[in-house]
Write a structure and sequence with these properties.
globular, 19 helices, 69% helix, 435 residues, mainly alpha
């Protein structure tokens, strides 16, 4: 058989669209799907000699990065086996993205499957999240998470806001290409509003920042449904303001605590004591110390930077921050040690050096260039090189590689699966078959 075919395309689409709800329940089954699909896709490519799936600069650069990380684990990392846990099979993430590309090329109806999978998951999380917020328990009687923050089915993992904010642009992208009626437009509009508010209600400040960044990115660069998104987002902001006035704990965490943790309260207190009012006078007051995100984040980031200064070119090896941070010569601040420094760029500097850092930074520069080129063409040429669908997918990638925010572990399987999903759709939209 020259071309590998499936006897049941519907079943295959269902299996791979199910990765969305499985991400809610934990990393095991999504990672299993990714690993099996990567192995199958390698077999498919070599059996049918369809090497064009891998013949694009995005995947080539990614595989070079994977090979580089593996070499670091082998020759640089102090604990080789711990480092190999992250680097050895990291390439499967890129193969999974390519497999999504293949599935869409094979059968465009998988877009509908992913759309309804996302809508269903978002709707369930909205219902359960609001119940937990107002009653302190979700539909299964599970209490709120740490510091009484809502987490729904994620239990003690306070990542519901991350899940929603990172996949929201993908949902919007699939919504744009789906055939729909007016009733569905109203339903999705209401869902968007409820999701926007729910992300704020989780108390996950980074997730709320990502929501705002992706929303502005999409509103500025898309053509259709621009007004739709402006109305839904502004309505959500209005409801968030009402919530903030009525739930002081939430507003204190999202605003007051952020200001205090970043060391900005010192400026405000000094200004009040001095009675300074003019902008010129305010600019002369210096803060005691600027804190990066929070004191805990500040400590981890500064510790990671000390590690980078010790081995700036190659770093200490993937997953080595958790090992090397125990060395007192690197430790800075109140919490110098954790599994990762909570920022992708700083983590790569510490673990993979300037070489690994440039991989991610060059991707950010590329996405930024593509976005600015889209804006330039809109303003001066009245053209749009990218479709609205591609813009929403690009928004997913943009917030993933946004440098000025706390992040999870760059080599975390759960996060990498979420990040690889929009890349697969984006690759297909550029290199795949056109409808």
């Amino acid at each position: 058989m020259k071309n590998l075919k499936f006897s049941n395309s519907t079943l295959l689409n269902l299996i791979f669209a199910s990765i969305i709800p499985l991400l809610i329940w934990g990393p095991f089954f999504p990672d299993l799907i990714v690993s099996i699909s990567a192995l199958f896709f390698l077999y498919y490519i070599f059996k049918n000699k369809f090497y064009y799936f891998l013949n694009n600069k995005i995947l080539i650069i990614f595989f070079i990065f994977c090979a580089y990380c593996t070499l670091l684990s082998l020759f640089v990392a102090e604990e080789m086996m711990i480092s190999f846990e992250s680097s050895l099979f990291y390439f499967r993430i890129g193969l999974f993205s390519c497999f999504i590309w293949y599935l869409i090329d094979k059968d465009k109806t998988i877009l509908t499957y992913f759309y309804y999978s996302l809508v269903s998951c978002f709707l369930v999380l909205v219902i359960d999240g609001y119940i937990q917020f107002f009653t302190d328990e979700n539909i299964f009687g599970w209490p709120k998470g740490h510091h009484y923050r809502i987490s729904s089915f994620f239990k003690d993992e306070l990542i519901m806001g991350s899940f929603l904010s990172r996949l929201f642009p993908l949902l919007f992208a699939l919504f744009l290409v789906k055939k729909k009626n007016q009733i569905e437009n109203y339903f999705i509009g209401l869902l968007f509003i409820l999701v926007d508010v729910l992300i704020f209600m989780t108390g996950e400040r980074t997730s709320f920042v990502f929501l705002n960044i992706s929303t502005l990115f999409i509103i500025i660069l898309i053509k259709d449904y621009k007004k739709f998104r402006v109305i839904t987002f502004c309505t959500a902001i209005f409801l968030i303001l009402i919530l903030s006035f009525n739930f002081s704990k939430l507003s204190n965490r999202m605003l007051n605590k952020t200001v205090n943790e970043m060391g900005l309260k010192n400026i405000e207190m000094n200004l009040n004591k001095l009675g300074l009012e003019s902008i010129e006078q305010k600019s002369t007051v210096e803060p005691k110390q600027f804190v990066i995100f929070t004191p805990a984040h500040d400590s981890l980031i500064r510790t990671a930077f000390e590690m980078f200064k010790d081995q700036p070119v190659l770093g200490h090896g993937p997953k080595m921050f958790r090992v090397m941070c125990s060395n007192k010569k690197y430790q800075v601040g109140i919490k110098p040690c954790d599994t990762h420094p909570h920022n992708f760029y700083v983590q790569l500097l510490a673990e993979t050096g300037l070489v690994g850092f440039l991989f991610l930074f060059s991707l950010f520069v590329s996405v930024l260039y593509i976005s600015l080129e889209q804006l330039r063409c809109i303003i001066f040429k009245k053209k749009r090189p990218l479709t609205d669908y591609q813009i929403c997918l690009l928004a997913c990638i943009f917030i993933t590689i946004w440098p000025i925010s706390p992040n999870g572990n760059f080599f975390n399987n759960w996060l990498m699966i979420i990040y690889s999903l929009p890349i697969g759709f984006y690759l297909q939209s550029i290199y795949g078959k056109k409808t």
